[in-house]
């Protein structure tokens, strides 16, 4: 269960700190110890009941939590955008321009209620984040794919294949040769997995771009916010499937690195 920081919000806010600190200091400075004791007692009662208050959560704490998470999300997204390859960063910039055009035209469409548009248009932000994630996954896979030296792998394959054929079953030299051949087979399979993951991610990035263009083409004729949201949701389902595939490939890559270390 998530540990929500309601206690932190109750204590570390300027109003509470000012009243608590002011009361204690005033009691000490004036020589009225009872004032400091009363202030500490009031603070203890505040910290016991305030974090669990439904009214305070609704009016104050939950809003503070939402603002904090939004700020953290902006920082996280900015960090990811900064890691994008320059060509992908340029594509993202064009998508943001397209998003602004879609939002402007959506508000100009008399069939779409402005009040209902907010949640549906917010889904475009999620698609932009999907685009960034796909770009990062593709770049990682492409970078790792470049580490494969097929000439060296082919030389190793011929060497260990010859050793496996040259020695009888049970010979330790044949056993180690067969183990190396198995590692080489798995490395080739991982390279193929990387290739598929790259094609999926790059294809999905293009699908997001094409969908933004399609929404811009059709936004003036879309009849309801639900129709707009439905199209975006459908695309996100596909994106999530690609994301799962990319995560699987990352696991494969990790396993391969472990095998490479084990056989050095």
What does this molecule look like?
Helix 5 (86-108) packs antiparallel against helix 6 and helix 6 packs parallel to helix 9. The chain has 2 domains: 1-82, no CATH class; 85-264, no CATH class. The chain contains 9 helices and no strands. The chain is flat and about 95 Å long. The protein is mainly alpha-helical.
Short description:
This protein is an all-alpha fold.
Spell out the blueprint of helices and strands.
Elements: H1 6-11, H2 14-30, H3 33-49, H4 54-82, H5 86-108, H6 114-145, H7 150-166, H8 172-218, H9 225-262
Helix pairs in contact: 2-3, 5-6, 5-8, 6-8, 6-9, 7-8, 8-9
Provide keyphrases for this structure.
flat, mainly alpha, 264 residues
Main beta sheet: strand number and arrangement?
none
Let me know the average pLDDT: 83
Q: What proportion strand?
A: under 5%
Topology pattern, helix = H, strand = E: HHHHHHHHH
Number of β-strand runs = 0
Tell me roughly what share of residues is in helical segments. Answer: over 70%
Estimated structural class? mainly alpha
Note the total helix count. 9
Rg calc: 29 Å
What general form does the structure show?
Answer: flat
Q: Stretches where pLDDT falls below 50 for ≥5 residues?
A: 251-259
Number of domains: 2
- Roughly how many Å apart are the termini? 43 Å
């Amino acid at each position: 269960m998530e540990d929500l920081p309601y206690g932190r919000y109750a204590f570390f806010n300027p109003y509470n700190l000012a009243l608590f600190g002011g009361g204690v200091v005033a009691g000490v400075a004036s020589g009225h110890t009872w004032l400091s004791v009363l202030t500490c007692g009031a603070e203890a009662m505040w910290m016991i009941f305030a974090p669990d208050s439904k009214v305070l959560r609704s009016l104050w704490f939950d809003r503070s939590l939402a603002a904090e998470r939004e700020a953290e999300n902006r920082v996280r997204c900015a960090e990811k955008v900064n890691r994008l390859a320059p060509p992908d960063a340029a594509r993202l910039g064009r998508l943001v321009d397209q998003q602004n055009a879609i939002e402007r035209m959506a508000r100009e469409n008399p069939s779409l209620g402005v009040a209902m548009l907010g949640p549906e248009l917010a889904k475009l932000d999620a698609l932009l984040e999907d685009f960034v994630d796909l770009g990062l996954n593709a770049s990682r896979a492409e970078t790792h794919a470049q580490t494969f030296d097929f000439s060296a792998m082919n030389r190793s394959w011929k060497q260990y294949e010859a050793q496996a054929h040259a020695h009888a079953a049970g010979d330790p030299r044949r056993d180690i040769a067969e183990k190396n051949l198995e590692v080489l087979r798995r490395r080739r399979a991982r390279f193929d997995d990387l290739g598929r993951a790259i094609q999926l991610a790059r294809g999905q990035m293009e699908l997001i771009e094409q969908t933004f263009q399609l929404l811009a083409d059709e936004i003036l004729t879309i009849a309801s916010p639900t129709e707009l949201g439905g199209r975006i949701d459908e695309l996100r389902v596909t994106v999530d499937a690609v994301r799962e595939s990319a995560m699987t490939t990352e696991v494969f890559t990790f396993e391969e690195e472990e095998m490479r270390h084990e056989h050095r």
